[in-house]
Amino acid sequence: MRSRLDGLRRHFPSARVVGAWLALMALPLALCLAMAYGLSLYHYRSGTSQLADANARRIESILRRGEATLVTLERTTGGQCNDANIQAMARIVFQSVYFREAGIERDGALVCTSAGMLPEPMAIENSRRKPAARVGTMEILSPTHTLQGGRSLILNHPLRADRSRFVNLLLDPKVLVEASDYLEGVQSATFLDDAPNGRFLRLELKDSPALADLTLPLHPGIHRGRGGYFAVARAGAYPIYAVMSVSDDRIARHWRTQMQPAVVVGFLLSCMALLLLRRFMPRTSEADDLREGIAAGELEVWYQPLVDARDRRIVGAEALVRWQHPRRGLVLPDQFIALAEENNLIGPLTRRVIEQVKRDLDALGKLPPDFRISINLARADLADHNLVATLDEIFGMGRSLGRLGFEITERELLANMIGRAREVVEQLRAGGAEIALDDFGTGYSGLSHLRHLPLHYIKIDRSFIWALDTEAVTASLVDNIVSLARTLEMGLVAEGVETEQQRAHLLAIGVFLHQGWLYGRVLPFEALRKLLEQD
Ligand code: C2E
Ligand code: MG
Ligand code: MG
User: Which of 281, 304, 319 marks a domain boundary?
Assistant: First the structure.
């Protein structure tokens, strides 16, 4: 079940890859949107807090002026109601921007105001009420209905210690509420904390969702309400609080206006992230892909015939691996051998090839005595003893490797590896396998390899063969390779023979074993079997 699922998964780009790409697309976008929301929040939080502070300072200065005006009233009138004093009071009120009316109260009754003399003293309860606060020489009374202008905040100034006489000022509470046009969507409110009378009063009446759960006592700062945020500032020593509120809806609306640039920036960042990802993803995902492909049995071994050019008889074949990728189709080894080497996958890859070669040799049944299949080895195969262990496992301990050849390219034989490679090569030889040095002439230390490694064959690289017809220098190099091989008593194979001229030239200089398109391409096993049956 599991392997079927794995197989299915490999026909599509891996869900992990798609998921990672989508996440990478989404992440910068989400971050930019979150940042835009953070900026909207900051805009309103700092805006409301600054406005609340400014309004609190303004309220404090109005009340200070009230205190000073009351002192002036006391000094000017001495608490006496006569025409001159009434005129003086009217002048003082007229000159002040904030106060509606001034009055003189005696024994619980209002005797005169800045508007004139009362026909008879009017009993009022101000002097008997408990003030909300006493600051300096001024008492603040919570708003009540007054003669002038409806509800007024009353600022009282006792003239005597027995509180039988007062001068007072009426203050329109609206004056203490700041119009909050500076910051769109912010609502302003002003509260009087009349704690001595157990009351907490809003000085004007408007609805604001952010203030829904305003709780006492108020503390200066920014607070979270149920429907938004509110900033609180106190008017100095006076128990009056300036509150600025903003609803969550308002912040969200502001955020939406910022969304467009955030989406654009987020999209650009997503693109950059994807470009960066492309540099890293393919490597890891391709390696995973290959690992899964090897495990899922997608590697196939194809064969290229090795012929004796004199009579064109097939005397062997080279095993060349192919990857039947579920999405990419047939992938050639040049595209994945290096990947396998970089990702420690040569071990399992070579094992697959050997297993397949063993199965195919068994399937071929009776073969000419000298027929061999040669297997390409990579550096990692020569670096440890896993290869020999794998061969023992697949062919059986002590069984002959007489049907096998192994090809090592010069590139694999770094100088510091010769000792180890030699051990492996000797063990393969001891089992009866033949060893060839592949792509001879393309490496950089051919001669030292020839001296140090017990080899059977040299495979002349196809680039030399192709140049045989055209380049005299190369042709003479091939002559040298041939005489070198003779001196060292090694066999020769010519790779990549494509034309009759090349064949004739090679035969003339005594190179009889050929491999190349002239004789046969790289074929699936069934095609090779048919060729062998015809032979
Ligand atoms: P190689 O061992 O030198 O294999 C010969 C390559 O030459 C093959 O390429 C073959 O298709 C190509 N070839 C043969 N005759 C002709 C010809 O007449 N003309 C032209 N133009 N090309 C010809 P292929 O199969 O793509 O393999 C490439 C290389 O990949 C091999 O070079 C070998 O180094 C490596 N390789 C292939 N299979 C394996 C494997 O199972 N294990 C390891 N480690 N390497 C492998
Ligand atoms: Mg080869
Ligand atoms: Mg070769």
Answer: 281
